[in-house]
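Something for you to look into today, if you have time. What I am after is a single protein written out in full by you. I want to see for myself how the chain folds. Could you add the entry underneath, on a fresh line?
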Amino acid sequence: MLENIANAIKDKDKSAVLLLLTCFTFVFIMPVFEFPSNIFSIILFSLILFLASYPISRKVMFIGFVAILIELATRATDLIYLHYLAELTTNLFIIFLVGSVVRHMMNQKNVTIYTLVNALNGYLLLGIMFMSLVAFCHLYLPGSFNASGKSDMELVYYTLITLTTAGYGDITPKLPLSQSLAMLIAVTGQFYVAVVVAILVGKYASKN
């Protein structure tokens, strides 16, 4: 089974499907269950970075591995500024991965099911990046959001709802920094959708 997974990862299209399944599990399934340890989320997050970076190059995969190690190391210390730096490094790396996914999608001549998979991967990666920032604000800036804090699902839900600009209003940002972050999430989500739709429509139109 492990050999089949390794062979699938070597194929960029198949690795995109594996990335989608992992992102889907991380975003929609993991937050529903309350585990005594966050080891499962760490493993899934590491696997997401691995699957997203492996098709690009091994050098990029190594950078992702280092980013994970730095973030884990800073969590074990009380040095808040190092944690800031680790969060910034990880999120900049995810932005790079989103750009790589979009670039790979643009390089595909025809619109296929894998093109749509890559588009969804980029969107979910954006959501994961913003989830990290929202969780960071909620943890280190008390009162950033009016969430109860009883479940991680609240912040996951808030981030994706804001990313889609649905904005139900049951969870809202309270501080200026969290309000600016909410605006950034909404604008980025709309910009990504507009760019992806333009790319897909352009490729489909040129094919016909």
